[in-house]
Hints:
There is one protein chain. By secondary structure, the protein is of the alpha+beta class. 16% of the residues lie in helices and 33% in strands. The chain contains four helices and 13 strands. It has helices at 8-20, 33-42, 47-50, 165-169; strands at 62-68, 75-81, 89-90, 96-103, 106-111, 124-130, 135-138, 144-148, 155-162, 171-174, 181-184, 191-192, 195-196. It has a seven-stranded mixed sheet. A three-stranded antiparallel sheet has the order 3-10-11. Helix 1 (8-20) packs antiparallel against helix 2 (33-42). It is globular, with a radius of gyration of 17 Å.
Amino acid sequence: MTSVTMNAFQVLVDDIKQVLGPSSGLNSEDVEVEDLTHLMERYVSNAQEWTPYALSNENMPYTRNLVDEGNGKANLLVLVWTPGKSSPIHDHGNAHCLMKILHGNLTETRYDFPDGDKEKPMEIKSERVHKENAVAYMADELGLHRMSNHGSDYAVSLHLYTPPNVARRGCNIFNPQTGKKTHVAKCGNYSMYGQRVKEN
């Protein structure tokens, strides 16, 4: 019988699955964010380990590459960020989001949810640069955010979304000039388990 040696990235994926457990519910209140954060913090990024999942496309601001579905209770994704590009301002569909920078730097700009129906420019609440191996947490109770790659090289980040509400029901994006909300029904994956997803 041959034993398969897992690299540190594969161990991280497996450990995340263990923390999420085989039978815990999908309610985000069941999730031990601190335990998951510590796992992410302990992993030291090694490009040889995660590169098989890091598929990029220079014609897109970023790609979503599924690594694991965490016993159906989470989505673990490698996001590859095109230089000079950003995500829209968005919410997280009432889910936890943990992010670890695997390569490069990403700038996170946070905003409050728009107040009422009045259209006005969204005000920046905070902005910080997350460097390689940094871990950050985001959830709807903390507001909205936009992620940006201001560098000249691709940036790569690992994102854990639990429960996987956005993959199932989409999320809301917000116009920075007016605060107007638009629902995006499906946030699809560019690849799954290292294999490019065929476009319909």
